Amino acid sequence: MSETEPQKKGWFARFRSRGTPAVETPKPAEPEVEKTEPVEPAVAAEPETRAVPPQNELASEPVQTAPQPETAPVEAVAEKEPEVEKPEVEKKGWLSRLRDGLAKSTKRVTESITGLFTKKKLDQETLNELEDALIQADLGVTVAARLVEKLGKERFGKEVTDEEVRAAFADDIAEILQPVAVPLAIDAVRKPHVVLVIGVNGSGKTTTIAKLANLYRGEGRSVMLAAGDTFRAAAVEQLKVWGDRAGVPVVSKPTGADAAGLAYEALERARAEKTDVLLIDTAGRLHNKTNLMEELAKIVRVIRKLDPEAPHSCLLVLDATTGQNAHAQVETFKTMSPVDALVVTKLDGSAKGGVLVALAEKFKLPVVAIGVGEGIDDLRPFEARAFARGLMGLPA
Ligand SMILES: Nc1nc2c(ncn2[C@@H]2O[C@H](COP(=O)(O)OP(=O)(O)OP(=O)(O)O)[C@@H](O)[C@H]2O)c(=O)[nH]1
Ligand SMILES: [Mg+2]
Hints:
The protein has helices at 5-15, 32-36, 94-115, 124-136, 141-155, 162-177, 205-218, 235-246, 259-272, 289-306, 325-336, 355-363, 384-391, and strands at residues 193-198, 223-226, 250-251, 277-280, 313-319, 341-345, 367-371, 379-380. By secondary structure, it is α/β, with parallel strands linked by helices. Among the domains are: 94-180, Up-down Bundle (Four Helix Bundle (Hemerythrin (Met), subunit A)); 193-380, Rossmann fold, CATH 3.40.50.300. The protein has an 8-stranded mixed beta sheet with strand order 3-2-4-1-5-6-7-8, with helices on both faces. A hairpin with a 7-residue loop joins strand 7 (367-371) and strand 8. The longest helix is centred in the N-terminal third of the chain and has 22 residues, at 94-115. It is elongated and about 70 Å long. 48% of the residues are buried. The structure holds guanosine-5'-triphosphate (GTP) and magnesium ion. Guanosine-5'-triphosphate binds next to helix 7.
């Protein structure tokens, strides 16, 4: 057995703790919909392609900007993100895919660290350069300073190799990540446990909902989806296709309907049917940011009329490829929604995975799962040590 095998099984087994065996299951044939997204019949009207997420606007601007005219293009800011690659035809195991994806982040970090070790003794210049390398790798100024300070205290003037430095950093990073590596706890007493899923457009909300639905179904729970993105044409259809695929009902209304009203009705129905989990999808973009935030706040207000404690979980979905912009997204969404956990997607194709460390240090919000691909099975628990070691190019 390889060195990584026990870790791999433990990781997977914990995620699949109920119902499925702790071995890697073969990936089912990709359904056509995942590859070509035919659920987007409005593609002609909406030039956005899902595989290339649009640059979000929340990241760079404050929420309270002057409202844009109603005619503002809704899905127009489609600056292409080059880092998300098309899914490979031949699917690899999820762990190796995460490694491959994370390898882009790893490469950035490890190459710069390794490049610094031409000198043998750890001096101040090298420490400064290490700090820069960590900042460049999206770990953030605070984490970089903390890691380098600790290294300096322990090893200043001593002979060190780059492997030793990476191992020391990996340990410290794992320590930062450990408290946030917490799976989403579904309260079985609640019927339903309401999960509100929010995030900027293209971050992976709808896909994550499908993955969660599939996961909970696999655990033997009943699941219902609410198609709360009533704004984007084809969003309802997209969720319905995922719902069919996961074998769960989808409560929906035509595009343009009131999202809060839809969420209310879905909760009523989920209660009547004693459903275990209700996952509410939301729009990633409305006419402007203020509208979006108001809509989210309204959804929360309205469902609380039925259940004052709902939503029981509010997941903010962040696209790892957006790097430092993720900070602004957390800040923004926190002002309008009871964000209590994160899902970080697209770690299979991002060179900016280090941002997760900065987010953990800054916000201390649980990272309940990570997205490592576009398929329905490509959701994994966030495992602190494996992630930290992976980032530093070390075996798990
Ligand atoms: N590689 C990769 N792609 C992902 C992942 N999660 C989502 N995607 C892709 O990202 C694109 C956007 O995903 P959606 O789930 O539609 O995003 P959304 O947040 O619902 O977007 P809006 O409905 O516009 O707000 C799709 O092409 C997905 O297949 C992931 O973990 N890895
Ligand atoms: Mg969506």
